[in-house]
Amino acid sequence: MPSPSSLKVQYPLGGVNRRAGYSQSRPPFTCPWAVNVRTVGPLERRGRGGSRPCLTKYVSNNFGTYITGMSAISYLDATGTLRHDLAVIADGSLNIVRGSTVTTTKAYLTTDDGDKIIDENGNYIIFGSTVASVNPLGDSNAFQLVEWGGKLYIADSYPQVYNPVTGVVETLENAPASQPLIGVYQERLVLAGENHMFYMCEQGDPTNWDAGADYQNVGKAIMGYVGDSGQIGSKILAFRTWHDRAIIFGTADSVWAVYGNLSAEGGEKRNISPHVGIVSPHSLCVTPNGIVLFLARNGLQSWQIGSQEHPEPFSKTVVPEELLDVDSTTTDVLMRYDHRSAGVHLFLTPSSGVGSHWWIDLENRAVWPMKFIEDHQPVAADTISIGGYSDVILGCKDGYLRRFSNAVTTDDGEAIHSHLLIGPFHLGREEGFDGMLKEIIASMAENSGDVKYKIITGDSAEEAVDDAVGQLNTLVDTQY
Q1: Range list of H helices, 272-333
Q2: Which of 12, 86, 285, 455 is the most buried (most CB within 10 A)?
Q3: DSSP state letters, 150-176
């Protein structure tokens, strides 16, 4: 009779691995497929694995048919008190969330010269819509917004500026038109996205865009392009700024970095990659320590700001097929860094149906798939920080804002289904030997929910994995 042996199986901290060999015999383990799980249990935040945090409403308000933009904004009100609001664009209106209260901003009707029009009673004519119902610019329906100097700037056909003290939205004077990308860098508003050019206003003055001004003024407005000297570069699809030290620009097939002030000595533009690009405006994020993660046509890429190296695949052996050749014209791609969990959310929301979403575990360099019901599919996302409390807020297809919470056990009342495939493992002493499974002993948390398990076998590791993945995908398709 063969002697019995035991195999201690640990939670697969390495995440989903669809490219490595099938058989595993020692940690750190990966898994062939999973849905809605993470390497940190949500109940006690211990590193022992469990279901992902669930979704709960951020506020009870329904914002309308389609949420097209979000941004946090901090400012001093009329009394000098520091306020933290969340701006939400939905169906052409700019809504302001302050605590649990939601208000809609005003927009003045103006002449072509920008003068406000009054009615016969001497009152300003005010209308509700502040931006287009659907962003007319770029490949994404989501607007970009940025906070600067206590005001909120919105990329529209003509840039708009919202003053939270007066509650009014007005057109920004003299700014370049038809630029879908917006940011702030070294006290300059930055616009880009219509073509290969980018524009920076004069330092401290968002109404001055005259790049032909005094060349000795190191704070003057700037025009630039992404491309080698003497060549017309490709259209800018995305950019992000990092601590007034760098701007990362992405085209479909290249990545560029701007360091320092291009109007002053020491400022430079550098080609980071001539072959790998960024697929869409919201498909990149920057971590606090300067790691740039972005979705390219050949999958998830990472790059350290300041490095002389080219971007590299986030994990050379773990690139799920779902992250290759994502079509940003039919899928909204959103990436957000999560300060609370020190990882990155990657949401792929199709125009209809249920999308493929991912949690990127930076500590373990692991990726974990997530699923939500169709009403909860994210179409906009932003990170808010209020009094040190940081949260990723999702604007969902049904018009509600939601956030992840460890304190709830359902996705806003909808059951969450989490699944994990572990293995495969040889039952025999090694490959080529048969074995018999005698006993399974599971070590679970005392406050764990119910866990069901199933043993799937095959004549080979590949057969067992293919059967298990097929059964799991069929099950998940019926649940979401």
Answers
A1: none
A2: 12
A3: TEEEE-SSS-EEEETTTTEEEEPTTPP
User: Which residues are CB-neighbours of 179 under 8 A, at least 6 positions away?
Assistant: 137, 155, 159, 191, 192, 193, 194, 199
Task: Report the alpha-carbon angle 186-146-197, nearest 5.
Answer: 65
Supply the pLDDT for residue 265.
78
First-to-final CA distance of the chain: 47
Q: What is the pLDDT of residues 448-469, one digit of tens each?
A: 778 888 888 888 888 888 898 8
Kindly calculate the radius of gyration of the chain based on its CA atoms and give it in whole angstroms.
25
Q: Which residue has the tokens 């620009």?
A: 249
- Cβ-based neighbours of 144, under 8 Å, separated by 6 or more: 69, 154, 155, 180, 181, 182, 183, 281, 282
* pLDDT, tens only, 274-286: 999 999 999 999 9
At residue 349's C-alpha, the angle toward residues 348 and 354, to 5°, is 110
Asked if residues 401 and 59 have their Cβ atoms less than 8 Å apart, the reply is: yes
More confident residue, 197 or 40: 197
Q: Quick one: average pLDDT of 399-424?
A: 92
What's the pLDDT at 425? Answer: 80
Which H or E run contains 170? strand 168-171
Distance (Å, whole) CA 427 – CA 106: 69
Nearest alpha carbon to residue 320 among 117, 75, 17, 95: 17
**How many Å apart are CA 117 and CA 97, to the nearest integer?**
28
Q: What percent of the chain has pLDDT over 90?
A: 49
Token pair 């980071």 is found at: 272
Determine the Cα–Cα distance for residues 298 and 326; give it in Å rounded to an integer.
Answer: 9
Cα atoms in the 13 Å half-sphere on the side-chain side of 167 = 13
User: What are 25-63's pLDDT values in tens digits?
Assistant: 555 678 889 999 998 755 555 556 889 999 999 999 999
Helix ranges (H only) for 307-360 are: none
Sequence letter at residue 223: M
pTM to 2 decimals?
0.89
Instruction: Tell me how many degrees the CA angle 383-13-449 measures, rounded to the nearest 5.
Output: 80
- Does the pLDDT of residue 317 top 70, yes or no? no
Q: Is the pLDDT of residue 259 over 60?
A: yes
Mean pLDDT of all residues belonging to the chain = 85
Mean pLDDT of 410-436: 83
Rounded Cα–Cα distance for residues 369 and 348 (Å) = 11
Q: For residue 388, what are the CA distances in angstroms to 178, 208, 287, 300, 405?
A: 36, 35, 17, 30, 16
Residues 151 and 164 sit within 8 Å (Cβ to Cβ): yes
The 3-state DSSP class for residue 306 equals coil
